[in-house]
Structure formats: structure tokens, C-alpha cells
Amino acid sequence: MNKKMMKAVNLLLWLCLWQITAFFVDNRIYFASPYDTLTELLVKAGDVVFWVSILSSLARIVSGFLFAFLLAYILSFISYRYRWIGEFLSPMVSFLKSVPIAAVVVILLIWWGPDHLVLCISMMVVFPNIYSSMLTGLFNTDSDLLEMSSVFEMKKVDKILWIYRPSYLPQLHSAMGVSLGLCFKSGIAAEIIGLPEFSIGERLYRDKIYLNTPGVFAWIVAILALSSLTEVFFKYILKVIAKYPKQSLGMEEFLKSGSVKSSFSKKMPDGTGSIPEGYTVFSECVTKTYDGREIVNTSLKLKKGSTYYLDDPSGTGKTTLLKMISGCLAPDSGSVSTGRIAMVFQNDRLIESANVLRNLQVAGCVADPKEHLNDLIPDRIMMLPVSDISGGERRRAAIARALLHPSDIVILDEPFAGLDENTAGITAEWIKRHLGDRTLIFTSHGFFPDAFKNSERIKLIWIPEQH
Fold first, then answer.
1. Structural contact between residues 145 and 349, judged by C-beta atoms closer than 8 angstroms
2. pTM for this one?
């Protein structure tokens, strides 16, 4: 039995239970039957006041929901970016989560009367759920992808769409369903207390006064239907928005999207040091210590167009030094000045849901894939989501992203991991052909390609010559 059939059977069972209860109570003032409720609902549906009340209440509740949703969405990003703002808002969010709705309704009636009551109450119950869910999603964003976006200087809008959004969207989807249900419950409750003219709460209260229990039940059914339809509508809108932009990028779209950036940028936050002419990396006395053990202590002067390598054993600080050069990690002392960086990380750090071309596009790559990628990545792979391609193909996609990104320095951290020796050799030749006059820094652990045989070794611990 499929899910839709199961839901229909469950609904039928509850209707039967409702009818049995009404049969034994046998008093429509105390408990209305499904038939009495449906009859009353059809009668009300023929009255213009019914539809005016429905639309008026819907407008108030949805307005409060949308305003709170947008406010929570914006403030969550601000609180994520500026933690002190999040700390400042935290007591207010906790207050909104715990304060009794009835007490707030009474206070708002004293201040403003019934006109804006529903709008305020709807906002009050929606804001903390959306805000907290968004923050949870943002703080759970993949830190590796954020580091990648920093190295490739991704546009802010692309970071939101491709890195932050996949993290917060599931949280937002769940919170929206809960918030809409609470919004309708609290909004109608506020209308019953405040009795604004032409509202569901006011009409429901009238039926209660006149002991029209079938009428009360009819309004409850209308509220449930309205809440469900509104939730379906907003989730559909969220689903449509989530599909933009397309995860799969075509060849023509990729070629139109490319834009070359400026040549040099300082990666270190202090901006100290300068790059002598003819060099792309310049550092003095850069150190890094972990658990009291110094793993990096070196000075670097890397020439433009030269190739350098690190072949120290695993765990000795190769990746740490590369991260300091790329600006992902600050040194304990010293400074690093570099040109623009492109990098292949130890893990591929590709956007799983997007195809290879989209991954190249958001990283700011500029090239004609047919001309530059045919020897590295087959055409069929470029149109597939990254999640559907093999580990070796993912590795080559990460290498293509680094080499096709406008940069002055290319860093390759274990670039041939997961590739057999023949494929690694072909890949190394491809890298050499497309490197141009850029500086290349790579780590090697086992395989050392012939294409890089003239490379110069970088020392993690630099000992000055004795005179």
C-alpha cells in the first residue's frame, strides 16, 4: 500500500470514529456529527461573509508569517556574520519561545486594540522557529567548502546559493511547516479574543454564543483545510526557489558565464610584507606549532613560473604550510604575501549536487572546456552531478578547477591520490601544459611524475646556512 492510499485509509478511519462518537453522544449541541458539520459548511460556503472572513483572516496570518519569515531569514545571516548581534538577540528569541500567547494578546489589546493583533501574534510565533532553524543550518555549513570558496574567491551570492543554502534549506523546510501550523492556531486564537470584524475567529465565536456546535466544527474544518493548503503552497514555492539556479550547467552557458578577475590579491589578513619582482610567494620566518611541537618554520621566496614540491612524510606539516600560503590558516608568527591562489585540496571539495561545469563556473574558471578538458575529463562526465561520478573523475575535476581558475599560483595537495600511475602521469602532463607562467607548488607522497622532475624542494623546517 502506497503512502497516499495509507493516508486515505487513516482519514476514513478517523471519520468513522468521529461518526461513532457522535452516534453515542446523540446531542448535536455537545458534539456535531460529520454529516452535520459538512451540511453546515456547505451552508456557510454559500454566504459571502464566509469567504470575506476566510480571506481577511488569511491575509492577516500570511502577512504576519511572511514578514516574520523574511525578518528571521535576514537576521539569521547577520547574526551568523556578526556573532555579537546573535548574542544580543538571543534573550529576545528565548522570550518569544516561552512567553504565554494569551498574556501577549492581552497586552497588545491594551496597546493597539484588535486591528493589528493577529499580525503581531503571527510574527511572534513564527520568528523564533525560522530564525533558530536558519542559524542551525548556517552553523552546520560544510567548513571545507567554505574554505574552498575563500581560496577561489567565490562571489557572495554563489556562496549563499551553492554552499550555505544546501545546509540551511532542510532546516528551513521543516521549520516552515511547524511555523505555519502554529501561525494559524495562534492567529485564530487571537481573533477569538480580539474579535476583529470579518474574521474567522469572530464568526466562530458567534456560533459558540448561539450554541451552533456544527457551525463551530465547520469553522474548525475550514481552518484545518486552509492551514494545510497554505503549507502545501509555501512548500511548493520553497521547492521551486531551491531549484534556482539550475544545478546542471550546459557548455554554452558556461562559456557565457566566465569572467577574468584582477591579477594580484594579498591573502594574509595583516597584509604585511611585499612581493619582490619576479616572485609570487614571499614569506619570512613563518612558524606553526601544534601541541608544543614546531612543525613549520621556514622562509619562502618562490619564483614566478617555477615548480616546487614537498615530499615530507604524512603528518609533518605539508598541508599546514600550504594552508598558510593559501590564506586558509594564519601562522603563529611571520607573514606571507602571495599572488592569487588556485588549489587542489586533499579532499576534492566539490559541490555534490552540481555538475562538473557548474563547479567550474562558481569557482570563476574561464576556458573552453572542449579545448582544455578533453584530455582530462570526458564530455559525458562534465554534465553529470559530482555525486554520480567516480573518485578518480572527481579528482580530475578538482584539478581542472584549479588549473582553469585565473591565478598566479597553483597549489596541489596530493593531486594524484586515487589515480592509477598511468592516469596520474597523463594528468601531470595536462597540468604542465596548462600551467603557463604560474608558480606550481605540490605535495608528493609516493608518486612523483616525470613532468615535474625539475622541481625544487621546499623545506618545512628551514635551517640557515652557517658562515
1. yes
2. 0.83
